[in-house]
Design goal:
The complex is a heterodimer.
Chain A lengths: L2 H25 L7 H18 L4 H22 L5 H21 L4 E3 L2 E3 L12 H4 L4 H24 L1 H11 L1 H6 L4 H27 L9 H14 L5 H15 L8 H15 L7 H14 L10
Antiparallel strand pairs in A: 1-2
Chain B lengths: L3 E10 L2 E11 L4 E5 L6 H8 L7 E6 L2 E2 L5 H6 L2 E3 L12 H6 L10 H5 L4 H16 L15 H13 L5 E5 L7 H15 L4 E5 L3 H7 L2 E6 L2 E6 L1 H6 L1 H6 L9
Parallel strand pairs in B: 3-8, 3-9, 6-7, 7-8
Antiparallel strand pairs in B: 1-2, 1-4, 4-5, 9-10
Helix pairs in contact in B: 5-6
Classes of the chains: A mainly alpha, B alpha/beta.
Chain lengths: 307, 253
């Protein structure tokens, strides 16, 4: 495979995690403009662990997810009482705060005679784990898509379980959820935490492929894109946000003749879709129709598979 | 002791006294009617009972346990289920899933059941959902999106969803609202089957023939106050009731 293709595929995979993160929140009825913060926390936390403390990436990844997930659950808990636009503004403010904290933070230790660690707007460099272990971009490709496969599988299972229907019910009608006995507070915090952990995966891979990350990588445009991926691709299945990433990164960014117009085309696509397909291309109705067709082909009948 | 004991319940919205010192008690196994003109406080009373609004005054006991001001999800866990006058279904979920999702707060359901996909216990619960769809006449529509169902089916689906929780007290908010006379008769039949095994029901309804047909006792609200209570024959003949309620019926919905 040529390097350009691998880079594009790695970008698609990496952005898929933050897109899934925003998608999970969209299912629960929340629009977050702040998922880039958890992508950033994942990048910095994992980078600090491998570059400064010599940890293995495979240990740093779950730890970074934990850090980011806990931070997200905390933010989720603090913003629970906010609805709609106010929630969106609070998440944006939080993400910008995290970015500015990163700009203002310098914390370095000496590794092999060189200072390593977050250095304000100079970023966090020397994330050499991939380099030291002689990982090529194509190795990261397998790592990213293997992890993405696991996360997607968990999403599919969640959407077939009661957890999925609980999250969707909260997203559709909070009062209804409460009168059905759903503890909305508990599930909102759970969803926020899971979404934070998922975004961190993308950030961790990004940091270890780039080897240097800057606070400016995690600005609001990343959050806006991650939201748009779910809204373009559709809210009926976890494949939706990935379809959104494919359309944006795989098509608009990779195909040269749209290069200069990418943001115009992307913005137009979002606007047109929000008018004609408000819940995206793969919305609940199309997904339901596809599933019914699939079930017609298979002979087995499955009660819970009706969703 | 009565299953539901309401004493001195009040609910105020700003200067409006939506409910004013209501006393009621509903016995186990009773079908209790709640009538009154629009804006008389019937749905507000349901909202206070289900925890959507806390009461401003008074006490509510469900089987002896105080539920006034308790969070709605806790009250739902105590065996109280309701339907909504203005229909609250998840529109982009199938009829089956709308009922299925309500099973999660049943006794014995833990986090493992919330995360389970398939399994023997899950299959048994699904069969129960199918049986309720059958009972409410929705079996043929099990895969239709709730939002695509005609209104009478949506009202039936709300009843199926409430029943799947095996409630001790079921509140029906205008179950025949917007229905034709034939559909209303079918709804009356359904409510009778629902009540048959000794279930306790409180029914809000504007259709007097339905109320007279299914209720053991009823109570009339007007401007948030209780103005009459008793068996349908007596209450519906009460001149005070005829004056405030039936006389104005033509103007309503």
């Amino acid at each position: 495979m040529d390097d350009h293709v691998i880079t594009v595929l790695n970008n698609i995979g990496g952005f898929s995690f933050i897109a899934l993160s925003a998608y999970l929140l969209l299912l629960s009825g929340e629009i977050s403009f702040g998922q880039q913060a958890f992508y950033g926390i994942g990048a910095y936390a994992s980078g600090i662990m491998t570059a400064m403390f010599g940890m293995s990436f495979w240990l740093a990844l779950p730890l970074a997810m934990l850090v980011s997930g806990l931070a997200a659950a905390l933010v989720g808990g603090l913003t629970l009482r906010l609805r709609g636009l106010y929630f969106a503004i609070a998440t944006l403010a939080f993400a910008e705060t995290i970015r500015l904290i990163l700009v203002a933070t310098t914390w370095q230790v000496e590794v092999d005679g060189e200072p390593v660690g977050p250095n304000g707007s100079e970023g966090l460099g020397n994330i050499r784990w991939g380099f030291d272990n002689e990982y090529e971009p194509v190795d990261f490709l397998w790592m990213i898509y293997g992890t993405l496969g696991i996360v997607l599988l968990l999403f599919f299972l969640m959407e077939r379980s009661r957890l999925g229907s609980i999250v969707r019910t909260i997203g559709a009608d909070r009062l209804l959820a409460e009168t059905q006995g759903i503890n909305v507070t508990r599930y909102k915090i759970l969803v926020a935490g899971l979404a934070g952990a998922i975004a961190a995966i993308g950030g961790a891979f990004y940091a270890h492929i780039q080897t240097t990350v800057y606070p400016e990588n995690f600005d609001v445009m990343l959050g806006v894109h991650s939201l748009a991926y779910g809204l373009i691709g559709g809210l009926g299945t976890a494949v939706g946000p990935i379809l959104g990433v494919l359309l944006d990164v795989g098509f608009l960014e990779a195909v040269e003749w749209v290069q200069g117009y990418r943001m115009i085309v992307f913005g137009g696509l979002v606007a047109v879709l929000l008018i004609f397909m408000p819940r995206g291309i793969l919305d609940e109705r199309r997904v339901h129709r596809l599933r019914t067709m699939l079930r017609g082909w298979r002979t087995e009948t499955h009660g819970a598979a009706g969703n | 002791m009565a299953l539901l004991e309401i004493s001195g319940i009040g609910r105020r919205f700003g200067a409006v006294e939506a409910l004013d010192a209501i006393d009621l008690s509903v016995e186990e196994g009773e079908v209790f009617g709640l009538i009154g003109p629009n804006g008389s406080g019937k749905t507000t009373l349901f909202n206070v009972l289900t925890g959507v609004y806390p009461p401003s005054a008074g006490e509510i006991r469900l089987d002896g346990a105080p539920i006034g001001g308790v969070r709605p999800e806790r009250i739902a866990g105590m065996g109280l289920a309701r339907t909504f006058q203005n229909l609250r279904l998840v529109p982009h979920m199938s009829a089956f899933d709308n009922v299925w999702l309500a099973q999660h707060r049943r006794p014995g359901m833990g986090m493992r059941d919330i995360l389970a996909v398939g399994g023997r216990r899950e299959r048994a619960r699904c069969e129960e959902v199918e049986a309720l769809l059958e009972q409410t006449g929705l079996a043929a529509r099990r895969d239709t999106f709730a939002g695509d169902l005609p209104l009478p089916d949506q009202r039936r689906l709300e009843i199926a969803r409430a029943l799947v929780r095996q409630p001790r007290l079921l509140l029906l908010d205008e179950p025949a609202g917007g229905m034709t006379p034939l559909e209303t008769r079918e709804m009356a039949d359904l409510i009778r089957t629902v009540a048959a095994p000794g279930r306790t029901l409180i029914v809000i309804e504007h259709k007097m023939d339905l109320i007279a047909d299914i209720c053991d006792r009823l109570c009339v609200l007007d401007f948030g106050r209780k103005i009459a209570e008793g068996p349908p024959g007596r209450v519906l003949g009460d001149p005070k009731v005829l004056d405030v309620y039936l006389g104005r019926e033509d103007g309503d919905d």
